[in-house]
Structure formats: structure tokens, C-alpha cells
Amino acid sequence: MASTLSPEEIERLAQRRAGAKLGWYTHAVVYVLVNLFIFAISRYGFGSRPWSVYPLLGWGLGLVLHGVAVFVLGSDGGLRERLVQQERERLQRQRQNQ
To answer: Can you tell me where the transmembrane regions are (predicted)?
Structure first.
């Protein structure tokens, strides 16, 4: 697929993918810092039960789904690329049959 893209399209795609990955890394750092703070409050502050596990798990699921979207569905040769290529080929066949 990359061989059919112009240099400008390749640059735009590279910029978008790099931005998506940087967004995930930022998300992961914020997740760790905020959950460390929440853990400290839970452990040494309010309440007798370790309630910090609930936001940790909920937000962790969101972080995992964000990672799947960025690194699995959005990367070269990933599921998204294959689906886009299949759809492109299907549309080209439909167009030729008209």
C-alpha cells in the first residue's frame, strides 16, 4: 500500500501515526501519575479499604483499548490497513463492473 502513496501522503500519514503514538504515551504517563496519587490517598488518607483499585482497573481498560486502537488497528500491516485495502479493492471492482 505504501508504494501507491505520494511523498506528501506518506508524510501526512507518518505525522498522524506519530501523533497517535505520542498521545498514547502521554495517556500512559498521566495514568501512572494520577493512579499513584489516588493510591496514596487510598492507602494513607481516606477510608479503610483499598478503593483505589477501582479507578485503576476502569482507567486501565481505557488505556488498553487506546493502545489497541493505536498500535494494533493503526499500525502498518495492522487490521485497519488490511480492511482499508480490501474495501478499496471491492470499490474498484464495483466501479469496473459498472
So the answer is: 22-41, 53-73
Residue ranges of domains in the chain: 2-97
Residues of the chain with pLDDT under 50: 1-2
Distance CA 39, CA 54 (A): 10
The phi, psi pair for 15, rounded to 5°, reads -60, -45
Contact call for residues 42 and 51 (beta carbons, < 8 A) = yes
H-type alpha helices, the chain: 7-44, 53-67, 79-97
Instruction: Give yes or no for a contact between 71 and 24, defined as CB atoms under 8 angstroms apart.
Output: yes
Sign of CA dihedral 56, 59, 65, 68: negative
Task: Give the contacts of 73 (CB within 8 A, at least 6 positions apart).
Answer: 79, 80
The position carrying cell 501519575 is 33
Average pLDDT of the chain, as a whole number: 83
d(CA 44, CA 78): 44
